[in-house]
């Protein structure tokens, strides 16, 4: 009996460190899971912070109606990109030769900054292209393409290509191709009337 009791004591003592080791392993796994969760949360917060807008006019790159883009613009012109250059290593400028000004007071040439107003701004222009430009002044007091670069509508073969982020009204949507290109005459006719309506509601009056 004494021998059996002594053997049991030995087995119990041997098991205690094993149980303690198991507890430590479980604790370490829980800590690793917590650390991984914390890193994921930090990553999400970082992404959200990066895409925080610098200006209310460019508050969100999401679907916006054509009327909303009109409302955000301080200048709406049809023109051709006559040059693209850099005033400094970090500043790209597109010079637009204005053909028609549909809203706002435009000089014969308008300088547009292609520098992003925030990380999700896609503003771009191509030398020689003809387009409709919806422009707003940024905090740097330069013209920027409204709706984070989506207020830029190239004109090719009498067709206006509209960004998928700009929601067309039904009367233009019914005329649009799959790539959301619409006959220029239809777009021009609609915009002239809609600019007067939107600006009239805002108290700005027609151009």
Q: Care to count the β-strands?
A: 10
Residue share in helix: 25-40%
The helix/strand series, from N terminus to C terminus, equals HEHEEEEEEEEHEH
Structural class by sheet pairing and helices: alpha+beta
Radius of gyration: 30 Å
CA distance, first residue to last residue: 107 Å
Spans of at least 5 consecutive residues whose pLDDT stays below 50 are 40-59
Number of helices: 4
**Could you tell me the strand content as a percent range?**
25-35%
Sum up the overall morphology in one term.
Answer: elongated
Q: The biggest beta sheet, please?
A: 8 strands, antiparallel
**How confident overall, as mean pLDDT?**
81
Structure characterization notes:
The protein has 207 residues and is of the alpha+beta class. Helix content is 38%, strand content 28%. It contains 4 helices and 10 strands, in the order H-E-H-E-E-E-E-E-E-E-E-H-E-H. Strands 2, 3, 4, 5, 6, 7, 8 and 10 form an 8-stranded antiparallel β-sheet that branches. A two-stranded parallel ribbon has the order 1-9. The model is unreliable at 40-59 (pLDDT under 50).
């Amino acid at each position: 009996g004494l021998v059996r009791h002594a053997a049991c004591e030995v087995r119990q003592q041997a098991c205690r460190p094993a149980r303690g080791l198991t507890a430590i392993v479980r604790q370490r796994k829980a800590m690793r899971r917590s650390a991984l969760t914390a890193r994921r949360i930090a990553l999400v917060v970082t992404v959200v912070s990066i895409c925080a807008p610098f200006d209310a006019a460019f508050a969100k790159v999401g679907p916006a109606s054509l009327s909303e883009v009109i409302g955000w613009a301080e200048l709406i012109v049809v023109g051709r990109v006559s040059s693209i250059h850099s005033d400094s290593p970090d500043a790209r400028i597109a010079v637009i030769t204005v053909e028609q000004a549909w809203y706002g007071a435009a000089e014969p040439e308008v300088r547009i900054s292609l520098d992003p107003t925030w990380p999700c701004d896609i503003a771009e222009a191509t030398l020689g292209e003809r387009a409709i430009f919806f422009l707003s002044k940024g905090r740097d007091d330069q013209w920027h393409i409204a709706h984070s670069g989506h207020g830029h509508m190239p004109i090719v073969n009498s067709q206006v290509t509209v960004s998928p982020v700009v929601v067309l009204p039904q009367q233009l949507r019914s005329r649009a191709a799959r790539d959301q290109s619409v006959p220029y005459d239809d777009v021009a006719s609609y915009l002239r009337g809609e600019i007067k309506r939107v600006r009239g509601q805002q108290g700005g009056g027609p151009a």
